[in-house]
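Q: Two folds, back to back.
A: First:
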Amino acid sequence: MPCMCGDIYCPSCGPAQGNYRCPACGSWTADGGCEDPTTCDAIVKKMDEDEERWYLVDEIYQRIAKEQNVSLIDVKVPEGEYKKWRDMPIEELRKLKDNSEYIGSLA
């Protein structure tokens, strides 16, 4: 059940009343928002990309598991591949996830 306290600084009730907290700096809109919105936007973009990266790597692992006909825990990938995925630009990782030839080469 959602919180019903009504406090505009409550993480649940605040946004319901139009008061949002910046995930980067923690400032609330009711207090004037971010002191440096450009920096916060860059931090939030990086946070979003990091989260997307986890989902993309998970999708790659799931496709490899299907190709190898094993569970996720038993997936075998060549040494260094995970580090390569973690370090590559997000645009390249998005393409790699859908590259059946590459996925097949790891199976």
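A: Second:
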Amino acid sequence: MSDNETTVAVELSTPRGKYLAATCSAIELRTVEGTVDINPRSGNVLSLMKATEITLRRGEEFLSFRLENATANLKDGRLIVLAENIRCCNRPSLLPAAT
């Protein structure tokens, strides 16, 4: 199985620039309407408005981020999240808050 079939490329960005780029094996994206699990075999195209939180799985590590005024788009194994502001929830020392 190729790496493209077992991972999703994730990019978290704000108007100030790229906040995080990572390759993840699983993603949970919360919106005001519910939760969407994204894995490498998820649908080819997905667009969500009002995303509020994202949890990324990298190996055995889970990283959670709060999203303000965010949209998310999944296409061809790549998830792009654009948010007004992003804050790391569980590992504040790992990444500084984008302001």
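Q: And?
A: The longest helix spans residues 3-6.
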